[in-house]
Amino acid sequence: MAKKALVTGGAGFIGSHVADLFVAEGYAVTVVDNLSSGRRENLNPAVTFVEGDIGASETAALVRTGGFDVVCHLAAQIDVRKSVTDPRFDATQNVLGSLNVLEAARQAKAEGGRAPRVVFASTGGALYGDFVQPPARETDPKDPESPYGIAKLSVEYYMAYYARQHGMECVALRFANVYGPRQDPHGEAGVVAIFCNRILDGRAMTTFGTGEQTRDYVFVKDVARANFLAATTALPPVGPLDARAFNVGTGIETSVNRLAELLQQAANSHTPVERAPARAGELQRSALVVDKAREQLGWTPQVSLADGLAETYRFFAERRVRSAGATA
């Protein structure tokens, strides 16, 4: 009998790639997504799709009775700016919704079944805040600057509690700036999607301030593989908060200026770059140390930034062609 995986947010950018990989590995995959940002077109035809919210009682019942080996929990409110303007909504989705999943997994065990392993999509950039000199390690201090980061850290604390008190297997993956095919132009990593569309539109790419602010860009298929390994690899012993937390990035800082150059090369384009005033409070540098994921999960990023950007640009270009053909 095939093993079973549930992917929350599995119609979204990252979640759909995670679902694809589990399908390829022979799992019976169920996707739960409310389609607030996910797209039906992202769904693998082999998955069982359930339209629903992670905070709903129906989702809890699915987790509790579904007999899943793993729940990859990627459903979330992902917009840092929205978390600032409406922190209660952010907490409702990202904290209470996650608690609904965790408590249902606990109840599965309490009712005589088995608790699925829960792999949680946390954040690297927003978790460590501005006070950690990059690249950040898992054990560095956490001091989030946004409600979004606070919510993600809160869920990690709940997961550590469920591991210690209820013997559950909970893993937190702290993503760097994920980019790749199917990406929406939201969040800091969304600059890749924004730049791809600007090039295709023949419009200038905009950088803020000097353009020398850096991020750690990791390709979405590498992130999907990190999820699979976190779901299937023997975990370290239960311990403090960081015991079962893993950074998922490249450890390489890339400036926005360099990102624009690489995309120009990928597109064989000379799209100009225009400057805009610096944004107040913007994090200037970010990168993650990923040694722990290599040593304990056997994971390393395999796709170079140049290759990943080239694949991402091809995706957006081909989608543009398909859209034009559909409306012709």
Automatic annotation (TrEMBL):
Task: Tell me which residues make up the NAD-dependent epimerase/dehydratase domain.
Answer: 5-233
Query: What domain of life is recorded for the organism?
Result: Bacteria
Q: Which InterPro entries match?
A: Epimerase_deHydtase (IPR001509), NAD(P)-bd_dom_sf (IPR036291)
Pfam families assigned:
Epimerase
Q: Which SUPFAM superfamilies match?
A: NAD(P)-binding Rossmann-fold domains
Q: Where is the signal peptide?
A: none
Family, as annotated: Belongs to the NAD(P)-dependent epimerase/dehydratase family.
Q: What is this protein called?
A: UDP-glucose 4-epimerase
Name the source organism. Roseisolibacter agri
Query: What broad taxonomic lineage does this protein's source fall under?
Result: Bacteria, Pseudomonadati, Gemmatimonadota, Gemmatimonadia, Gemmatimonadales
